[in-house]
Amino acid sequence: MIQDQNQLLYSKIKRGDEDAFNHVFNLYYSRLCFFADHMLHDFDLCRSIVQDVFVDIWINRESLDIHFSMKSFLFQSVKNKAMNVLKHRKVESRFIDEQKKKDEPFSTQDLIEEAELNDKINSAIHELPPKCKEIFILCRFEELRYSEIADRLNISVKTVEMQISIALKKIRQKLIDYQIIQLFIFTLLRKK
User: Are residues 49 and 93 in the same domain?
Assistant: First the structure.
């Protein structure tokens, strides 16, 4: 019975039924956040990860192919994203440890790289769609809560959450090349 309901919801979402999507979102959002928080111990980050999973589902709904339950798919997707964060933290930690071992203050090269990264981030923010950019700036730079942004712009909190997730995803995509280059340089420097 439950499997049939899951299959029905999945097929409705695949056809673009927002009510079915909202039902699944409301049903699993909190549980998925707490699930991710057990691994990451950073609830804001967990909310962002869960929102990313739902954004991915909605964006890719037509090509999505779930062979098992929607619940299992959601929990596995959140687990995979959380594991990626943990791997990234491990790499970051190693890098910081290497910097400490050198016992050198940040060099001019580090400052240049930081400035380049800031430029790339600002450029990625400016390339966001206007409404998405406005919501992102209110959240990240003016430090407004989602509910305050929703009140100010007369939109729902869910819309704010989705727009923040979309903004973060687009910014990450713009920075992926930069991160890969930095990782490559870091690997080369370690070999010397």
Answer: yes
